Amino acid sequence: MTELINWFKNLLNGGFSDIQIKILLTLIILIAQWVVKRLLLRSVSKIQSSQTARYNWRKTISYGTNALAIICIAFLWSNQFGSFATFLGLLSAGLAFAFKDPIANMAGWYYIVFRKPFKAGDRIEVDKHIGDVVDISLYEFRLIEMGNWVNGDQSTGRILHIPNMRVFASVIANYNSLVGYIWDETEVIITFESDWRKAKELLQDILMKHAPQVYKNAEEEFQELSGEFFIHNTRLTPTVYTTVMEYGITLSLRYLCKPNRRRVAKEEIWEAVLDCFMLHDDIQFAIPTHRIVTDAPNVNRPLNRGSKENTPFASGD
């Protein structure tokens, strides 16, 4: 760096001090970093057709050029503090004191990038907020919000900005980290008078026809992960379970589906159930009911109209 500074001094006929030359070189480094970054990003946009690949390359180029610029500037100014190690020590102490939260966010970014609790495109839940990850930056990650006032895990249209430090203090649920599928259930409740065995057989047939046919792929993925995680799941095929409620028999349709296809899968299954049950008079849907039991003798007891006790406005004389 000293030779570069002396070269600039000679180029500018010695009319600038060392500090002024370093400021000029700092500006040149930042401009060069911006130009190189733009050129690389433009090249990636032309070469890569995949949106995921373009996003990953844009992030890699951004982080790489920024880090290279910071290192060059640090070496440029290091001799102002006696040595590069002293410069880094003073810089670290000052940043740690003044920028506690930004540093925690950068540490969270490091954790996200290298430990990969989630990545762009995953559906996650953080602090009861559910959404699809659309961007991961140095200080925050962004989600397209799902659910909230919208049913069926559909998008609300809002973007959630969550600081990276939350990965250290919150439980993060990733819908896509293990395999690309989640379990979903649809409950069908029928009356006690219905032929529940027949209904269960019909629902099983509906599941095999209309539930997402992903269990074979899921079995292969679970087998591949069995060496890395202790996973015990003996049955991945769609199935129907029977339970009893206060006002009817619940038949729970359990099946695998992709996180972003949950509502579509439920709609197809329900439409098939409605069409099927309309053809069978011995199967009826149950609704919550209440039964009122009264004292029969008191109800049937004849009213003694001659009694003052049963006369609302009887006089006392």
Structure description:
This protein is of the alpha+beta class and 317 residues long. The protein folds into 3 domains: 2-98; 123-174; 182-277, Alpha-Beta Plaits, CATH 3.30.70.100. Helices cover 47% and strands 17% of the residues. Helix 2 (18-47) packs antiparallel against helix 3 (51-77) and helix 7 (196-210) crosses helix 9. The chain is elongated, with a radius of gyration of 34 Å. It starts with a helix and ends in a 17-residue tail after the last helix. The relative contact order is 0.08.
Brief write-up:
The protein is an alpha+beta fold and 317 residues long. The protein has helices at residues 2-11, 18-47, 51-77, 84-98, 100-115, 166-169, 196-210, 215-225, 262-277, 296-300, and strands at residues 123-126, 129-136, 140-146, 155-163, 172-174, 182-190, 239-244, 249-257.
Q: pLDDT under 50 segments (min length 5)? A: 303-317
Rg value: 34 Å
Secondary-structure element pattern, one letter each = HHHHHEEEEHEEHHEEHH
Structural class: alpha+beta
Query: What percent strand?
Result: 15-25%
Count of helix runs: 10
Q: How many β-strand stretches? A: 8
Domain tally: 3
Shape: elongated
Biggest sheet features: 5 strands, antiparallel
Q: What portion of residues is helical? A: 40-55%
Mean pLDDT: 79
If strands are numbered along the chain, what order do they take across the biggest sheet?
4-3-2-1-5
- How many angstroms separate the termini? 119 Å
Give me some keywords for this one.
317 residues; Alpha-Beta Plaits; 3 domains; five-stranded antiparallel sheet; 10 helices; 47% helix
